[in-house]
Every structure is written in C-alpha cells, then in structure tokens.
Amino acid sequence: MLAKIEHRTLMDRVYRHQRHFYDVTRKYYLLGRDPMIAGLNPPENGSILEIGCGTGRNLILAGKSYPHASLHGLDISNEMLATAARKTAAAGLSDRVGLAYADAADFNPVALFGRGEFDRIFISYAVSMIPQWQDVIRQAASHLAPGGSLHIVDFGDLKDLPGFTRTALYKWLEWYHVTPRKDLFDVAERIAAGTHCESEARRLYRGFAWISVIRRRY
C-alpha cells in the first residue's frame, strides 16, 4: 500500500505543472504512440481502455480513429485526469469517454466503468514509470474480452542507437523517474503463455520504441 501511495504522490508532483505543456513536448520523443493506436483496429462498437491515460491525448486520437468505439481511461494522477477531462470535452468526446482515478496494478473495471472486459486495452509510455509494471500488464490482460488485445508502447533497449546517445538518453530518462523495461517482451510472452494468450513483439526506430501485443484467443 505504501508503494502505491508514494507513486500516486510522485505522479501528481511530477505532472502538476507539466500537464499544461506535456503534449507539446512529448510528441518529439514518445515515438510509436500513433502506430500503436493505428494497430488497435477494435471491432465495430467495440470498447477501448487506456491505462495511464494522462492528458487524454491518446484517447482523443483513438476516438477520432474509431468513431464507433466506447472509450475509457484511468490514471493514478488526479492532476492528469483533470487535464484529460478538459481536453476530451473540448474534442467533443464527453459522451464517449469515461475517466476514472485508479491504480493500474489493482483496479475493478466493473466498479469504475460498469464493464469487466474490453476489446482493446493499451498502455502508452507508462510501464516505464510504474514500479509494479508486471502486475499492471497481468491485470490488464485479465480484462481482455475474447478476441481482445493489449497493446503496450514504451521505450525499448535503445541498443542500436549510438553509444553516447544511448547513455545520455538513459540519464535524461532517470531525471524523470523513467526506467525502460529491457525485459518487456520476455515478460509479455510469459504473461501471455500463462493466460492462454499469444504475444507479438515489434521494434521501432533502432530500438528507441517497442510495441508489445498480447492477444486473447476466442
């Protein structure tokens, strides 16, 4: 419980001011988000959940890309949720988006959104900031509808980048409490195998970004 409280406090402190210019600055290095959203392809009138929805930027893009899908987002930062509510309303998506405060490692979607499963769940650049990230992935996979899929985009191992660039980037990410999960693909594969799912791995931009997909069988 202490770890959850500390993480919640940290996220509110980090984003209390950053949320106002977060989207403008992050678009230059949170690569792979748009390809990940383009690959969601939910069924007609399907449901989409974003874990760690932040400012709502990704939910807005998903809403425009999939106009018949219902959208849901949860975050542990009330500061970010306030921005997400404002931005999704400005985008005209208030009637399609449900937002909720919750810990991604332990949440009850029925209590939050009135449904227990989702056709698509995605996590964008959040597992690198969540201490219990493996629990988050496991929890998310457990809420996939039959035929559903979990899509994760985050920093990769950066191994194909020049050495100086890689070292500098790791140090910069450390300042923002970000830890790339070099075993993301292995963990996703283990979780998929243990939940009767299949996993896929995709490397982008010389290892700068990774996309991991866990698909639940019908």
TrEMBL record:
<dbReference type="GO" id="GO:0032259">
    <property type="term" value="P:methylation"/>
</dbReference>
<dbReference type="InterPro" id="IPR029063">
    <property type="entry name" value="SAM-dependent_MTases_sf"/>
</dbReference>
<keyword id="KW-0808">Transferase</keyword>
<feature type="domain" description="Methyltransferase">
    <location>
        <begin position="48"/>
        <end position="148"/>
    </location>
</feature>
<dbReference type="Pfam" id="PF13649">
    <property type="entry name" value="Methyltransf_25"/>
</dbReference>
<dbReference type="GO" id="GO:0008168">
    <property type="term" value="F:methyltransferase activity"/>
</dbReference>
<dbReference type="InterPro" id="IPR041698">
    <property type="entry name" value="Methyltransf_25"/>
</dbReference>
<protein>
    <submittedName>
        <fullName>SAM-dependent methyltransferase</fullName>
    </submittedName>
</protein>
<keyword id="KW-0489">Methyltransferase</keyword>
